[in-house]
């Protein structure tokens, strides 16, 4: 099923933003009509880079009224969840590879009134998340190996996006989102949405030195309606 374009939400990742001008960069994205802000939280263990913790989430919370998603690319996410929820994020997405108790963690996130997301690396079988589909708010398909912005979209992700949508619909979760993170740009966005995604992280496609944030977001939206 191809979801109507108007359902597609764009969430710039601040990973590629100019952090010396973060307030302006977030305001530019908000003015450009993005739907969420995505925070790429990296601990230097699950992925090599280190980015930021809950303090950055609090700072961003004070900069925008947009909903905020925290993508925890961290070992022991159980130690981090509450700090990001207390900071005011609207969704916490955990990697299934980082915990022996994904079901319990997703329950805890939901019990605190925050959307609970599950994500998995390109090399992790979708069967790993099957048991938690009834309690997650979204499945996020990593279409790059996590850790860096500006990477190429992994084309095999398209079948994983389709399969994730099928799996959610099969267990009555047509309300849950299929999110995609990594390599979303004007060349890939239409096929990603046609495969069933409705929530897209875009880092380098929004924040780059080629164009303004407004031009970049317009380019992405225009690519959505291109046949
Ligand atoms: C994990 C990060 C990146 C980032 C998106 O590596 O989650 O995927 O948000 O970066 P782009 O959109 O430039 O691939």
Topology:
Layout: E1 9-12, H1 22-31, E2 37-42, H2 54-61, E3 68-73, H3 81-86, E4 91-95, H4 102-111, E5 115-120, E6 138-142, H5 157-170, E7 177-181, H6 189-194, E8 199-202, H7 213-225
D-xylitol-5-phosphate is lined by residues 13, 15-16, 40, 71, 144, 146-151, 181-184, 201-205.
N- to C-terminal distance: 16 Å
Residue stretches low in confidence (pLDDT < 50, at least 5 long) are none
How many domain modules? Answer: 1
Number of distinct helices? 7
How would a crystallographer describe the biggest sheet?
8 strands, parallel
CATH level 1 class label: Alpha Beta
**Biggest sheet, spatial arrangement of strands:** 1-8-7-6-5-4-3-2
Main features:
7 helices, 8 strands, alpha/beta, eight-stranded parallel beta sheet, TIM Barrel, 30% helix, 227 residues, globular, 18% strand, binds D-xylitol-5-phosphate
Task: Describe, in short, the structure shown.
The chain is an alpha/beta fold and about 230 residues long. It has one domain (about 5-225): Alpha-Beta Barrel (TIM Barrel), CATH 3.20.20.
Q: What does this 3D model show about the protein?
A:
With 227 residues, the chain is of the alpha/beta class. It has one domain (5-225): Aldolase class I (TIM Barrel, Alpha-Beta Barrel). It contains seven helices and eight strands; from the N terminus they run βαβαβαβαββαβαβα. The protein has helices at 22-31, 54-61, 81-86, 102-111, 157-170, 189-194, 213-225, and strands spanning 9-12, 37-42, 68-73, 91-95, 115-120, 138-142, 177-181, 199-202. Strands 1-8-7-6-5-4-3-2 form an eight-stranded parallel β-sheet. The longest helix is centred in the last third of the chain and has 14 residues, at 157-170. The chain is globular, with a radius of gyration of 16 Å. The relative contact order is 0.17. The mean pLDDT is 96. Bound molecules: D-xylitol-5-phosphate. Residues 13, 15-16, 40, 71, 144, 146-151, 181-184, 201-205 line the site of D-xylitol-5-phosphate. D-xylitol-5-phosphate binds next to strand 8.
């Amino acid at each position: 099923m191809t979801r109507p374009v108007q359902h597609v939400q764009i969430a710039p990742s601040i990973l590629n933003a100019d952090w010396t001008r973060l307030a302006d960069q977030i305001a530019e994205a908000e003015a450009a009509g993005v739907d969420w802000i995505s925070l790429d939280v990296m601990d230097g263990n699950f992925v090599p880079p280190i980015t930021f913790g809950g303090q950055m989430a609090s700072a961003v919370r004070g900069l925008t009224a947009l909903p905020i998603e925290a993508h925890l690319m961290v070992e022991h996410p159980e130690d981090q969840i509450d700090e990001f929820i207390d900071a005011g994020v609207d969704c916490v997405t955990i990697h299934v590879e980082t915990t022996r108790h994904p079901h319990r963690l997703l329950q805890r996130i939901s019990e605190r009134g925050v959307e609970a997301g599950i994500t998995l690396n390109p090399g992790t079988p979708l069967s790993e998340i099957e048991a938690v589909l009834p309690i997650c708010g979204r499945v996020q398909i990593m279409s790059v190996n996590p850790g860096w912005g500006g990477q190429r979209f992994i084309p095999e992700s398209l079948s994983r996006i389709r399969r994730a949508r099928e799996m959610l619909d099969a267990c009555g979760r047509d309300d849950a989102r299929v999110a995609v993170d990594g390599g979303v740009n004007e060349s890939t966005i239409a096929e990603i949405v046609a495969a069933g995604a409705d929530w897209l992280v875009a880092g380098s496609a929004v924040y780059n030195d080629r164009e303004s944030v407004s031009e970049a977001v317009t380019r992405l939206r225009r690519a959505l309606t291109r046949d």
